[in-house]
Amino acid sequence: MIVIHAVLETRALPDFSFWPVAEQPPYRLMSLSGALSPDQAGTAMATLADYNSHRADVGQAGSAAAFLSSLLGEEGFVAPGGLRVQDTDTGTTVTPGCCCGLEDWREWLEIADGGETWLGHDPTPWTEQLGETVLLRPDGEIPGPVIEIPRAELTRLLLGVQRDLADFLLLVSVWAARHAPESAEAMVEAFDRSLAITAPLRRARV
C-alpha cells in the first residue's frame, strides 16, 4: 500500500520554555495531522516559529507572542519538510530532500499531471514518468529502490494529504486559543495561507 504524509522536519529546541513541547530528537520528520498530541503540536509550532525567526537563539525572544510573531507576516512562512511517500509492502520510503518546503506540497499536482517538480537535494529524490505511472526514486541511484504510483492514484493520495493538513489546522486553532489567544484567529489564517490548506485542490494543468 502507498501512503503519503505531510511532514515537518523538527528543530533543536534546547531549554525551550515558552510552552510545552514533546521530547524528541531534532531533525526528525513529524507527520502533521489531527493525531498529534498537544505537546507534539507545541513542537511543530516551536519548530516553525524558530525556523522563520532568523534568530540564533530562541531565548532572545522576550515572550511567546513575540516568538510566534515570525509566523504572522503577510508574506507567509516556510516550513522545512515536504511530502513523505512510503510503500508499506516493500518498505521503500521517499523523503523530502534538503531545502524542500512543505509550503510547496501542491506542486505534486504537477507530477500527477505528467510533469515534474523539484523535491530537494541530498539525497535528491526525483520522479520519472512512465506512461500513466509515476516512478518515485529516493535518490539518484539507478538501478535502485523505486515506488510506482498510477497518476490517477497520486491525485487521490494528495486529497488525503489535504485532509490531514486540514485536521492539523484544527489543532492549530485549539493550540493557539490556549497559548496565544490574542492572535489565535490570525495564526489560523497564517497557517492556512502559508501551507495552502483549505483552498480547493485543483489539478495544476488541464
Short description:
By secondary structure, the chain is an alpha+beta fold.
Question: How would you explain this protein's 3D organization?
Answer:
The chain is of the alpha+beta class and 206 residues long. Helices cover 32% and strands 17% of the residues. It contains five helices and seven strands. Strands 2-1-3-4 form a four-stranded antiparallel sheet, covered by helices on one side. A three-stranded antiparallel sheet has the order 5-6-7. Strand 3 (81-87) and strand 4 form a beta hairpin. Helix 4 (151-179) runs antiparallel to helix 5 (184-194). The radius of gyration is 17 Å and the shape is globular.
Count of β-strands = 7
The number of domains is: 1
Overall mean pLDDT: 91
Unreliable segments of 5+ consecutive residues = 55-59
Helix and strand string, N-terminal first?
A: EEHHEEHEEEHH
Query: How many individual helices?
Result: 5
Rg to the nearest angstrom? 17 Å
Strand-pairing-aware structural class: alpha+beta
Question: Can you give keywords for this protein?
Answer:
3-stranded antiparallel β-sheet; single chain; 32% helix; 206 residues; alpha+beta
Write the layout of secondary structure elements.
Blueprint: E1 2-9, E2 29-31, H1 38-53, H2 64-68, E3 81-87, E4 92-94, H3 108-112, E5 126-130, E6 133-137, E7 147-150, H4 151-179, H5 184-194
Antiparallel strand pairs: 1-2, 1-3, 3-4, 5-6, 6-7
